[in-house]
Amino acid sequence: MPRSAVDSKLEKVNESDIFAMRSAKLQDMRAGGFDPFSQNFERKHTSKQAEAMFRDAADVQEVVHVAGRIVAFRLMGKASFLKILDADGKIQLYVSQDGIGDDEYRKFTKFDIGDIIGASGELFRTKTGEITVRVSGILMVAKSLRPLPDKWHGLADSDQIYRQRYLDLIVNAESRDRAKKRCQIVKEMRKFLWDKGFEEVETPILQSIVGGAAARPFETHMNALDQHCYLRIATELFLKRMLVAGFDRVFEIGRIFRNEGISRKHNPEFTSIEIYQAFSDYRGMMKLVREIIEHLCISVIGSTKIVSSEGVTIDLGGEWAERRYDDTIVDATGDPDWFSFTKEKKLQRCAELAIEVNAESEDFEITNAVYSKIVEPKLIQPTFVTQLPREICPLAKINARDSRHIDVFELCINGQEIAPAYSEQNDPFVQREMFERQIGEEKHNLDNEFLLSLEYGMPPAGGMGIGIDRLVVLLTGASCIRDVILFPMLRQQQHGQVQDS
């Protein structure tokens, strides 16, 4: 019976029945003295390496040893074709009764799609031109007890794509390619900064005082010290201590935890890179972030022109726009006198613009709501928004000519913030004043250890953070942040929802 007919019948059988059938096959193997889970196979070539060997040898027969998961299987009497998937891609195998012997071929016919196997043999090219392994030896190294989904994206419950990401990566080439690109992006980012003389350091995830951003933290307790702790919401304050210590160029790639909302753009656990360079400023960070993104585009994507999930072409080469924050607000509201309005007038205009704002918000928060709801979503091509209100970030240098603003930029691409950066505040007295204004009466949240370090002297510096997840979304054309996080946070399934064996 053709393999496709077998698969058609199996589609009508539910997964628990297939699990039982495959478990029975496993028991038969063990009863015959063979346990696939106790075997190993010395893989000497990936699929890509095997195909390259054949091409380099000008179609001369070469013996290869490959291994992978069966993803296609055509059983045709005394000879069969199958394809296996490894980390590099797929390669076709030709297995015949003459090639491996009667007993081994009989065992081979019991293999299923999803099984992980090893095979050795000579390479040849089929009549259709496909490079193929003529198998002379084959071994199962892991039995698959559950069937792979045939059309994973056709499943009604798309939540399972994220919950069982391993299946998504097996059957969906686009997801697999995106995951590999993420690895390459992080690798190339590190390499770029190393080549620029930056040192990669590691700072604490568990902290007694959280700082470096305005966000709600996750809380925990350290038994050894009987001490309340938080998971970090940023790496900034410890990295600045490294500037004080004389490490002039430092960065850290790490997980950040913020106990806040989940959306297409937000995950409570995410990855960021923070970069600090002494004797620089936010203008120096502008140059650096352009160089980083251009390098990633060329080395990983292959072009500085990318296409968003909405089908819009974004040009990350050439000149990037620069706009002052205040100007974007005036343009968005159509109110040249916006910054002279009373709070009540601003709230009235927000209502007219259909922007929801808490009436108890401070004046700068009302203005920033206009920015986040109207301005930012429309910044599709790369744009530096500069000179933000000083209340937004207490860690930035106050502009020397206009004390209402700070020397900051937010890099926006495709309607979202990709990288904020600023000239770092290194005056300990101004920094203390800014902190105290931010925390109000909650003096216990003041990071006196960080302020103490500034009193020893921190050089002028530029600092920048880049959300790696958002950057990967941008560069790969993904539709949301969950698509680029291998195992995003999901609501826990209720008892009984996960199928038992």
Produce the secondary structure layout:
Blueprint: H1 3-11, H2 15-31, H3 47-56, E1 63-76, E2 79-86, E3 89-96, H4 97-100, H5 102-108, E4 116-125, E5 131-142, H6 159-163, H7 165-171, H8 173-195, E6 199-200, E7 206-207, E8 219-222, E9 227-231, H9 236-244, E10 249-257, E11 269-278, H10 282-301, E12 305-307, E13 313-315, E14 321-324, H11 325-333, H12 343-352, H13 363-375, E15 383-389, E16 405-413, E17 416-423, H14 428-439, H15 448-455, E18 461-467, H16 468-476
Parallel strand pairs: 3-5, 6-10, 14-15
Antiparallel strand pairs: 1-2, 1-4, 2-3, 4-5, 7-9, 8-9, 10-11, 11-18, 12-13, 15-16, 16-17, 17-18
Helix pairs in contact: 7-8, 8-10, 8-16, 11-13, 12-13
Verbal overview:
- The protein has 501 residues and is α+β, with helices and mostly antiparallel strands.
- The chain has 2 domains: 3-148, Nucleic acid-binding proteins (OB fold (Dihydrolipoamide Acetyltransferase, E2P)), CATH 2.40.50; 167-320 and 381-483, Bira Bifunctional Protein, Domain 2 (BirA Bifunctional Protein, domain 2), CATH 3.30.930.10.
- 34% of the residues lie in helices and 25% in strands.
- The chain contains 16 helices and 18 strands.
- The chain has helices spanning 3-11, 15-31, 47-56, 97-100, 102-108, 159-163, 165-171, 173-195, 236-244, 282-301, 325-333, 343-352, 363-375, 428-439, 448-455, 468-476; strands at 63-76, 79-86, 89-96, 116-125, 131-142, 199-200, 206-207, 219-222, 227-231, 249-257, 269-278, 305-307, 313-315, 321-324, 383-389, 405-413, 416-423, 461-467.
- It has an 8-stranded mixed sheet, with helices on both faces. A 5-stranded mixed barrel has the order 1-2-3-5-4.
- The longest helix has 23 residues, at 173-195.
- It is elongated.
- Residues 1-12 and 152-156 have low confidence and may be disordered.
